[in-house]
Amino acid sequence: MAKLKVKKKKEEVQKAKDISTVDKNMLVLPPVRMSDDPTPKQVKWINRQRVLVFAARGINHRHRHLMEDIKRLMPHHKTESKMERSKNLYVVNEISEMKNCNKCLLFEGRKMRDLYLWMANVPNGPSAKFLVENIYTMGELKMTGNCLRGSRPLLSFDPQFTKDPHYNLLKELLIQIFGVPKHHPKSQPFFDHVYTFMILDNRIWFRNYQILSEDGALAEIGPRFVLNPVKIFSGSFGGATLWENPKYVSPAKLRQAFSKKAGNKYERRIEKKVMNEATKPETGYPDIEGAEFFKGDPMEKAQDIVVKKENNEDEQIADESDTEIPKEMSKPHFTMKLTKNKPDKAIRRKQLKAKSKAISDQIKKRKQFKKKSVKS
């Protein structure tokens, strides 16, 4: 019996020791906590998201400044030197694995004026390609807003992101890329700015605001840019096309349409000039004899014109009474058709129309010749 009692006592002591060790490891929160009290810190860094941000050769200085601004906003980013344009995009997966990154932002330039942005989940996908428009860097804007470097942002999304499936996928991709992980070594443990992603005109508009106070007062920091989605792929930098933007038009085609519109300006001006010459009257003011008409008091001039018209009418009536009207013309059903023949004006108009037609034919021949030369 004594041995059994000793064993029970030993078991109770061990249980008490186990409970004390568990209590030490577990963080027990008080039932009531003041709002001003600091939250207990989580020691572990669980969300280990790392984003590789770099560019391919061919971007200009404004695109490079935008890339640097995005790097400043993301303390969990990693950098890499410029990639050669001749390499295949699948090489980016290997680069990101070497850098121990699971997300990637690749800036790709075309013709030193257009900027494309690739967002990818490495290595399994999906990935999305965007055309970056309306770029304004922090250096250009010089806004009043300011935030601490490395602080975590709040992400604000338009309600339209939840309506369409492709926008829902892009929302998840943006959250994982732009959201700073909690307890990241280079991040600050508080929120003092907001990223807003708004959908307007089938594009995603990005803005960055500083939180001034708890009542919702904001001040813009920058940068500003607009993402025009082009395609969404199932894999990382490739694979099957999950979604394609039907309203997307490449900037090269837009520039080509504008240049065509500007090229036709000269032809329209010549045709307008020819038509003006064809319809131009010989005398602009047939009743006005000279420049002296505009001199003097206008009221007196008007009275003189009225008096002259009345005198002319009286003279015409007197002449008609003096002349004898033939019997055929005195019939009530007879009506005179006074026709003013102006053969000179008709000939002149025909000549000008023929001239305008000849000029338009020459312009058409030039266009056809240009098209043949381009094809050959």
UniProtKB/TrEMBL annotation:
<comment type="similarity">
    <text>Belongs to the BRX1 family.</text>
</comment>
<dbReference type="GO" id="GO:0000027">
    <property type="term" value="P:ribosomal large subunit assembly"/>
</dbReference>
<dbReference type="InterPro" id="IPR026532">
    <property type="entry name" value="BRX1"/>
</dbReference>
<dbReference type="GO" id="GO:0005730">
    <property type="term" value="C:nucleolus"/>
</dbReference>
<feature type="compositionally biased region" description="Basic residues">
    <location>
        <begin position="364"/>
        <end position="376"/>
    </location>
</feature>
<comment type="function">
    <text>Required for biogenesis of the 60S ribosomal subunit.</text>
</comment>
<feature type="region of interest" description="Disordered">
    <location>
        <begin position="311"/>
        <end position="376"/>
    </location>
</feature>
<feature type="compositionally biased region" description="Acidic residues">
    <location>
        <begin position="312"/>
        <end position="323"/>
    </location>
</feature>
<feature type="compositionally biased region" description="Basic residues">
    <location>
        <begin position="347"/>
        <end position="356"/>
    </location>
</feature>
<dbReference type="GO" id="GO:0019843">
    <property type="term" value="F:rRNA binding"/>
</dbReference>
<keyword id="KW-0690">Ribosome biogenesis</keyword>
<protein>
    <recommendedName>
        <fullName>Ribosome biogenesis protein BRX1 homolog</fullName>
    </recommendedName>
</protein>
<dbReference type="Pfam" id="PF04427">
    <property type="entry name" value="Brix"/>
</dbReference>
<dbReference type="InterPro" id="IPR007109">
    <property type="entry name" value="Brix"/>
</dbReference>
<dbReference type="GO" id="GO:0006364">
    <property type="term" value="P:rRNA processing"/>
</dbReference>
<keyword id="KW-0539">Nucleus</keyword>
<feature type="domain" description="Brix">
    <location>
        <begin position="49"/>
        <end position="238"/>
    </location>
</feature>
